[in-house]
Every structure is written in C-alpha cells, then in structure tokens.
Design goal:
By secondary structure, the protein is of the alpha/beta class. 42% of the residues lie in helices and 19% in strands.
C-alpha cells in the first residue's frame, strides 16, 4: 500500500516512514502541505497521514484540497493538541477524517490507524 506521510517535524516524519516501510508499505513523505499536494498529484496514495498544525499550509487545508481531488481518499489526521476530537473535526464536513492519531503515539497506534484507514478505502474499479 502507498502511504503519504505529511509532517513538518522531521524526526516524527522519519520515524513514521521507517516504521511503515518496515511493515512493507511504500511511503511517500512531505514536510508541508504544498509539497504533499504535488507528491499526491504525481504519485497518488492509498492512505494519507497528515499533521494538522504545520507551517505554511496547515493539515486541514491539505485535506480539503485532497478531498476535492479524491473525495473517498482515506485520511488520518495527527495532532498533539488535546482539543482535537472527532466531534470538532466533524463540524467541517470537508475534513471527514477516517481516523485521528494523537501525538505522541506508539508504533501499534500508528499501524492500527493505517489498517483502519486502509479497510475503509474505496474499492478500485
């Protein structure tokens, strides 16, 4: 499965890339929203993991752009802000995340979030 990881924190992003690669996934990585959108347009992804708070284009804006391009794309949002909840995100129907991963998270939580998102992926036609 091809996963796009978007986070402006290099150490968090790299740790995720290493973990997901070891699990056999093809992982694309971007350190911000603009780079992520370019990568997605060039290569696509089966699942996207994005931080919400990033410099430049924030994660919510990235998700809105991706939803315009691919309405059924599974997206997991990541945040270190304890105020971020599914209920808060549901107020904005353009976000519709498949999952929320609270930082700091454990390896098992990352893998479970990816598996959950993959299970909700639209079947290929």
């Amino acid at each position: 499965m091809r996963i796009l990881v978007i986070d402006d924190n290099d150490s968090v992003r790299r740790a995720m890339v290493v973990t997901l690669t070891r699990e056999g996934h093809e992982v694309l990585e971007a350190n911000g929203g603009a780079a992520a959108l370019k990568l997605w347009e060039e290569r696509g992804a089966d699942v996207v993991l994005t931080d919400l708070r990033m410099g430049g284009m924030d994660g919510a804006t990235v998700v809105r752009h991706l939803r315009a391009l691919s309405p059924t794309l599974p997206v997991v949002v990541m945040s270190g802000d304890s105020g971020v909840t599914a209920a808060n995100l549901a107020r904005d129907p353009s976000l519709k995340p498949i999952g929320i991963l609270m930082k700091p998270f454990k390896r098992e939580e990352l893998l479970a979030a990816v598996a959950g998102a993959a299970a909700k992926r639209a079947p290929e036609t």
